[in-house]
Amino acid sequence: MASITINAILKAKPGKEQLLREELVKVIQPSRAEKGCIEYTLHESLEDRGVFVFYETWKDEESLKFHTETDHYQEYRQNVSTLLDTREVYRLQKTVQ
After folding, report:
1. 42 Rama sector, left if φ>0, alpha if ψ -120 to 50, beta otherwise
2. Listed residue (9, 10, 31, 5) closest to 91, CA to CA
């Protein structure tokens, strides 16, 4: 089974940029420690303050499902709910190896 890449684009509500960044940083280490996590990287836009992009690669669907059910992921989702203006999530696969 092919790996799954997640590209999550998160935009903070005005004035909530630093709070959102802090919450996003908290979820990185526990996510990287999960079995099946190949990459879990947070990026911050140079042009648009408050826009963050997670680039994640998971071994398979089972690993991704486990990730979304972990306590740290659930806590992260709850903590950012009032900080987010928009959230776009793309599930991707490589078209050429």
Report:
1. beta
2. 5
Q: What is the pTM of this model?
A: 0.91
Give the relative orientation of helices 61-69 and 71-80 as an angle to the nearest 10 degrees. Answer: 60
Please write the tens of the pLDDT for every residue from 34-80. Answer: 999 999 999 999 999 999 999 999 999 999 999 999 999 999 999 99
Kindly list the structural domains of the chain, giving each domain's residue range(s) and its CATH number in brackets, ordered by start: 4-92 (3.30.70.100)
For the chain, count helices (H), then strands (E).
3, 4
Give the CA count within 13 Å in the CB-facing half-sphere of 58. 19
Spatial distance between the Cα atoms of 85 and 93, rounded to a whole number of angstroms: 27
Q: How far is CA 54 from the centre of its chain?
A: 4
